[in-house]
Amino acid sequence: MLNDIERTLFHEQTILSRLDALGAQITREYDGRELTVIAVLNGSILFVADLMRRIQLPLRLDCISVSSYHGGTESSGTVTLDQTSMPDVAGRHVLILDDILDTGRTLHAIRRRLHEETSALSVRICVLLRKAKMRAEELDADYVGFDIGDEFVVGYGLDYREQYRNLPFIGVLKPSALAADAVCP
User: Fold this and answer.
1) Would residue 140 show up in a list of annotated catalytic residues for this protein?
2) 29-44 burial string, b = 16+ CB within 10 Å, else e?
């Protein structure tokens, strides 16, 4: 796996230090409020686990499974939510945690469903990574770990064809790793 990485963007300690700051900020801003964290699976699982331990508030955790990449490097343009209904967040403040803000389609769809189907007091978004690019949906995150260029990244929960999630850092995948995979079934 390491041979497939072109370069490292963020080492594990850099990520964890940034999560310390994010956790402290979220703790301050939600102090005294009922908070529900909604984790967008599967890519955010490491981010969610590490960030939640840094939020010094009682909170509730719900998870939703959503996909828009379907195994490739570009969003398919179709967002699939695997739930028939959204978590019960009535009277609560909601913080959606996701690994990356790319096209905006996934987070836009989740936020729209939460507003339509629940009586949440507020819905905010926290992402580990925000790509610098035009979005298909007008959307931004309220909390951002790191801004990155428009590159395909893996590690720390982010994957390519369900691989590389377990890398402890975030790195850019070599084009040859993508090209080699494209010719293999």
Assistant:
1) no
2) ebeeeebbbbbbbbbb
Phi, psi of 90, rounded to the nearest 5 degrees = -55, 130
Tell me whether residue 128 is in a domain.
yes
pTM over cut 0.85: yes
Catalytic residue among 102, 140, 147, 159: 102
DSSP state of 25: H
- For residue range 143-164, what is the model confidence (pLDDT) as tens digits? 999 999 999 999 999 999 999 9
> Which CATH number is 32's domain given?
3.40.50.2020
What is the predicted pLDDT for the residue at 20?
98
Based on the structure, what is the number of domains in the chain? 1
**pLDDT tens profile 34-55:** 899 999 998 999 999 999 999 9
